[in-house]
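hey can u check if this looks right to u? its 205 residues, i copy pasted from the old doc so theres a chance i mangled smth
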Amino acid sequence: MKVTIFGATGGTGAELVKQALEGGHTVAAFVRNPGTLAEQDRLQIVTGDIHNPADVEQAVQGQEAVICALGARDLKKTMIRTEGTRSIISAMKKGGGRRLIVVSAMGVGESWDSLSLVNKAFFAILLKSTREDHEAQEAAVKASGLDWTIIRPSGLVNTPRTGVYNVGENIRAKTSQIPRADVADLILNELEKRALIGKAVTITN
């Protein structure tokens, strides 16, 4: 499958690129700095600015699916997820495919009630702006009219893929951690199965 990955140099994005190539997909990795990824077979490195419509349109043109793993590297107030996702949606409607998978976070939208009181406080105090960004991002995805899926991981960690995890709408986390590699595993399996179109699901372990 021909897949574009936004946020390709972030923790989850890099894992998505790795696993997608291992799975035989052809990947267009959208990056700001082309030096952050090594050239590989079936990997096209697309250099651009997520805020530039022409760059984003070029990245999605002719692709069968788009995965958005945009994020921020610190806790400063930002709307990069929302603004970037809106740009991606607009570009897909002009010339890309209809399949969109977006990485959000557990605790966003309807999954808020699945959080413990401690995690609700953590979100409300330390991650308030991040949650606002995710909420607006999800709203844009749900209103897009595309064949979308939203993936809401619990706490992301850089441990090896297990292939064993729980997925469902508004499920509670047994732990607060999920490997980024397992999130990538779920997303790439969903590209093939198409079982979660129109759904926002939590992944946890």
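The longest strand covers residues 147-153.
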